[in-house]
Amino acid sequence: MLKFSRRSLLKVLSLSTFSVSALWAASIHANESKSETVSTESVSVFHPSNDPAWELTFEDDFKAGILDQSKWFPGYRLGRMEYYRKLGFPNEHGRAWQPQPPMAHYLLEDSVLKLRVDKDLPKRPTPETLTVSCVTTAIYRHNEQTGSFDDEVRFAQKYGWFEIRCRMPKCGSGRYTAFWLHSVGAENQEYTPEGVRKSLKDGALEIDIFEWLGRSPKENLFNVHFTKNGHCAFSFDFDITKDFHTWALNWEEGRLTWYLDGKKIRVYEGPTPQNEMYILAAMFQAAGWTGPLDMTIQYPVDLEIDYIRVWKKK
User: Fold this and answer.
1) d(CA 311, CA 244)
2) Which of 13, 65, 166, 215 is within CB 3.0–4.6 Å of 291 for a Cys-Cys bond?
3) Residue 193 CB-density burial (10 A; 0-12 exposed, 13-18 middle, 19+ buried)
4) What's the chain's average pLDDT?
């Protein structure tokens, strides 16, 4: 197996075994189908940085030493939380576990962004209280004067190549990391502003480039919410917490292709989102569908991000 040092070029990872297991029936996916087959055929390595037909549209390598807030909002669904409070929080749909305010706890060290959950940060009543450290490139806010929602978008894009180089934490059951694409606009996301989760009838609204659960560290979930065949669990035979790895998605109309360290690992064909999408990266302490919360783990737990980059065809 190839090992990756930080700032190394993309390399093809030799994986001895690729396998697919069905996505378990969890409440969060209650109305969605089981996984589809992962493609593992051998293909020549492609990367948009080597193709003049593509251009770089977004990049953060976290070298500045401070979070670039011209690119990021350091919090989880800030606009939705504001709206919840206007409705009366928590309400029948509101997720009362969310931190208040839901601001990220993060560090920047050696050009790495660490989205961190520690024993007492993000600030919460007890270490067991559920929480999240998150950065996003767009939010929405409720406009009290008009009654509508205003988007604040620092980056969003329809179609293209979305890439992250990161290291997963040893975080135990009940915690997970995420690298998602969400549709711009309060009414276009997988939850309504009131907190009601949408369903198949609402179509493709979210792409999960990865959703990695601490309780099953050799497996990753790929999702296209809300589609019949857009959900699967991908297994690998190595410890993904030891080194940095590169995850990428090539989003085309009707087709999504996932890559791990330069190797194509899954192809989905079917409905894809019709809106521009923004980036969300997060470290969750969530319990529920991710398993009972393991409080024997050692804090802090970090999703360590080396860089995030996006390309599109010219």
Assistant:
1) 21
2) 215
3) buried
4) 85
Closest residue by Cα to residue 232 from 214, 251, 254, 207:
207
Integer Cα distance of 205 and 67 in angstroms: 28
Q: Which CATH number fits the domain that encloses residue 294?
A: 2.60.120.200
- Per-residue pLDDT at 234 exceeds 80: yes
Q: Is residue 5 domain-resident?
A: no
The total of structural domains in the chain comes to 1
Convert the pLDDT of each residue in 90-103 to its tens digit: 666 655 556 666 78
Question: Lowest mean pLDDT: which of 20-24, 60-64, 122-126, 280-284?
Answer: 20-24
Predicted TM-score of the model (pTM)? 0.85
261 token code pair: 């360290």
pLDDT value at 15 more than 70: no
Q: Across-strand partners of 284?
A: 132, 176
Residue 48 within any structural domain of the chain: yes
Tokens 């979070």 sit on residue = 67
Q: Which of 176, 262, 189 is nearest to 221 (CA)?
A: 176
Residue 8 lies in a domain: no
10 in a domain, yes or no? no
